[in-house]
Amino acid sequence: MQKNTKADKKRDALKGAILYTLLGAASAGVLLYLWWRYSLAGVAGTLVLLASLLDLGLIIPVWKVFQERIKEIEGGEEDAAAEY
């Protein structure tokens, strides 16, 4: 069994954050395109706009969590917890 090094853990955390950012931005882009293309108005238009804003708004917390994860990896907290 291969043991993950700190660099591997950091790389995996970065890949996850980048993947979510790309998927969230793409999802918001598709929703905004649909809103614009079909001139959605009323409740449907509002829901589409809110969904796209939610997709974009969740990108910031993902990067905050990524920063915390990097601190955990560097601090060795995960390694210390594995001893128990």
TL;DR?
The chain is an all-alpha fold and 84 residues long.
Would you give an account of this structure?
This protein is mainly α and 84 residues long. It has one domain. 85% of the residues lie in helices and 0% in strands. The longest helix is centred in the first third of the chain and has 32 residues. The chain is elongated, with a radius of gyration of 18 Å. It starts with 5 loop residues before the first helix and ends with a helix. The model has no long low-confidence stretch (mean pLDDT 92).
Number of beta strands: 0
Derived from helix and strand composition plus strand pairing, the structural class reads: mainly alpha
SSE order:
HHHH
Termini, distance in Å? 20 Å
Mean pLDDT across every amino acid position: 92
Topology:
Blueprint: H1 6-37, H2 42-57, H3 59-75, H4 77-82
Helix pairs in contact: 1-2, 1-3
Keywords:
84 residues, mainly alpha, 4 helices
